[in-house]
Q: What sequence folds into this?
């Protein structure tokens, strides 16, 4: 396994406008990117913390994954994302080890990363994302 670091922590919020000031004014991070990911029905805001990012997720559709998550569980940590090398092979080897994959092949996520989710059934309750930055 070649996980290099925690790429980001995804946090579901009701709206970015209310959440961003806490991260900027209280924690002192700078929001450096706001991006809509239509595919996942979310608007995201990013903060850098060392080499790890905080990714705030606001739903753009109550039927989307974040909309449903907030309805069930409220605001809070939604997923953890690990940076990996060779994401296709990592997915294949995890599947061989019995991990249930949500994405069998990577798709494009925010910031142009290749991402894939593992099913929380297989990850002891934490929705887990693998991602690889192939642009650098
Ligand atoms: Zn993510």
A:
């Amino acid at each position: 396994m070649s996980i290099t670091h925690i790429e980001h922590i995804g946090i579901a919020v009701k709206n970015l406008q209310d959440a961003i000031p806490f991260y900027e004014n209280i924690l002192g991070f700078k929001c450096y990117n706001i991006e809509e990911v239509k595919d996942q029905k979310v608007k995201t805001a990013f903060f850098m913390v060392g080499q790890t990012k905080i990714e705030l997720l606001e739903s753009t559709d109550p039927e989307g994954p974040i909309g449903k998550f907030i309805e069930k569980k409220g605001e809070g940590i939604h997923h953890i994302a690990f940076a990996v090398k060779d994401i296709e092979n990592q997915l294949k080897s995890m599947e061989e080890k019995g991990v249930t994959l949500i994405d069998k092949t990577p798709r494009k996520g925010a910031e142009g990363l290749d991402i894939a989710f593992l099913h929380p059934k297989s990850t002891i309750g934490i929705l887990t994302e693998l991602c690889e930055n192939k642009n650098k």
Notes: Residues 16-26 form the longest helix (11 residues). The longest strand covers residues 3-13. The helical segments are 16-26, 65-73, 87-96. The CA atoms of residues 7 and 85 lie 12 Å apart.
